[in-house]
Write a structure and sequence with these properties.
Layout: H1 14-25, H2 27-66, E1 70-74, E2 80-84, E3 91-99, E4 105-107, E5 124-134, E6 137-139, E7 142-144, E8 147-150, E9 156-160, H3 167-177, E10 181-187, E11 194-200, E12 208-215, H4 218-224, E13 235-238, E14 243-247, E15 250-254, E16 258-263, E17 266-270, E18 278-284, H5 286-311, H6 327-341, E19 357-359, E20 365-367, H7 369-378, H8 380-388, H9 393-405, H10 410-474
Antiparallel strand pairs: 1-18, 2-17, 3-14, 3-18, 4-11, 4-13, 5-8, 5-9, 5-12, 6-7, 10-11, 14-15, 16-17, 19-20
């Protein structure tokens, strides 16, 4: 771009003049950039609103879920713990535990080392079969006259050979094979302290096991062979057994200490036997409901506050909200108010105020927990209907939040519209920028030419003046 620097002989400061002219010409671009900035603030505001609506939806869903929760409180937590699903029936239950479920544990004869080879390494197949031991007597960990009945789950085998014929190798082979049996090595402190311990992975009377071997290494059979009805080369330290308990006087047997069918919707985790019956109280989880109700109120207030501030029109000296006059936000606000002003149907409770959630003068909610607890205790069915029924407040507000956030919902539709405006403005700015570039070159060229013309005229004038002065002097 051709320019002429300002000097004492220049008639015009071309650069300063063109800059001033372009500042005027760029006003439409500046106006468009201001509009874009304003729309970006609106989009950011809708992003904030979207996050708060999402939080409100989650809080509403959590309150709906919490209304179905029940607590299960044992009179003696050292005997058992309990959890209640929403299918449980509130009430008090008598629980007496006479025996805990446990797995069978066997221990092999001691060895002086855990990593010294056992036998000659000839491949030997070791087969495990889980089942039930019946009858006979047990003395010092050995059965006499007992029978073993497989539980029908099938057998599983490992191979012991020269690569793993040590206590450590056998342990690792058992644990890697997924046999339903776990192995470990214990040190009993004797002269031959290292002993292989085997335990069924499952508790219950049908989790006892029988171990048979086949192959050429008798040392492995001498170590691991175990038949409760025959030769037993391992000693039993714990017998497999079921849990035995009574619930309201009804006898219950369970292969596991986690008992889930004795009481409808309740899972008991047995810890100890009882000398006298313990009680289990199943009731509505009012603590969880109150926590969820407080979360619902807080989420509503956070959303309502932001909608109010971002839609407000500023009075004298006060800033106007970023979304003031926005039709989408105004519609969302009207929809929320409409839900809160429309009574629930289908029960004796019709308004949130009746369960301790009141609407304050500024539009916020306030929770009275004692009033909510009283309503729950008086008629939980009507409380649940007020919140979660088809016309319930929480159910309707959750559905509204979901609809507002959905694809094609108010927030997405409005945000897309704002983004479209921004895109169109950017396209217009791009065209104007091209025009500005051409216009700046034009102005620079024209005023440079004018400056040159004036410069030449000044020189001509100076020359003529000089000539006239010379002529006058000679006369």
């Amino acid at each position: 771009m051709a320019t002429i620097s300002s000097s004492t002989t220049s008639a015009i400061d071309v650069r300063a003049l063109v800059t001033q002219l372009m500042a005027v010409e760029r006003q439409p671009i500046n106006n468009l950039n201001a509009k874009i900035a304003n729309y970006e603030v609106k989009i950011s505001s809708f992003g904030t609103i979207s996050g708060l609506v999402s939080g409100f939806q989650a809080a509403s869903a959590n309150l709906n879920t919490s209304l179905q929760k029940l607590s299960a409180a044992p009179s003696d937590p050292s005997v058992f713990s309990a959890t209640a699903a929403n299918t449980a029936v509130p009430g008090t239950y008598s629980v007496n535990v006479s025996q805990l479920a446990q797995s069978q544990n066997l221990v092999a004869a001691g060895k002086t080392s855990s990593n010294t080879a056992i036998g000659d390494g000839t491949a030997t197949t070791v087969t495990f079969d889980l089942g039930t031991i019946s009858g006979g007597t047990l003395s010092n960990g050995i059965y006499s006259g007992a029978t073993f009945t497989s539980n029908g789950g099938g057998t599983a085998s490992i191979t012991i050979d020269g690569t793993n014929n040590t206590l450590e190798g056998i342990r690792d082979a058992v644990n890697a094979a997924g046999l339903g049996v776990s192995a470990s090595i214990v040190n009993d402190g004797s002269g031959t302290p290292y002993r292989l311990a085997l335990s069924s992975s499952s508790s219950g009377a049908s989790s006892s096991f029988k171990i048979t071997t086949s192959g050429g290494d008798g040392s492995i059979d001498s170590l691991l062979g175990y038949d409760p009805a025959g030769t037993q080369n391992l000693n039993q330290t714990l017998a497999a057994q079921n849990a035995n308990l009574t619930v309201n006087g009804i006898a219950i047997t369970s292969a596991s200490n986690s008992v889930s069918e004795a009481i409808q919707g309740v899972t008991l985790t047995l810890k100890n036997t009882t000398a006298t019956a313990a009680t289990l109280t199943v009731a509505r989880d009012t603590a969880a409901i109150n926590t969820a109700a407080a979360g619902f109120v807080d989420a509503h207030n956070a959303l309502a506050s932001q909608i109010k501030s971002r839609s407000a029109y500023g009075a004298a000296g006060k800033e106007t909200g970023a979304l003031a006059g926005d039709s989408a936000l105004r519609l969302m606000q009207d929809q929320m108010r409409g839900i809160l002003l429309t009574p629930a149907t289908g029960g004796t409770l019709t308004s949130l105020t009746q369960v301790g959630i009141s609407i304050q003068q500024d539009g916020s909610m306030k929770l009275d927990s004692s009033k909510l607890n009283s309503a729950i205790a008086t008629d939980f069915g009507d409380v649940s209907n007020l919140f979660s029924g088809s016309t319930g407040y929480v159910a309707r507000l959750e559905a509204w939040a979901k609809s507002s956030l959905a694809s094609g919902g108010l927030i997405e539709t409005r945000s897309k519209s704002l983004n479209t405006h921004i895109k169109n403005y950017n396209t217009e700015i791009e065209k104007l920028e091209n025009r500005m570039s051409a216009l700046e070159k034009k102005y620079t060229r024209e005023y440079t030419n004018l400056n040159t013309l004036l410069y030449n005229m000044n020189n001509t004038s100076a020359y003529l003046t000089q000539q006239l002065s010379s002529s006058s002097g000679s006369n």
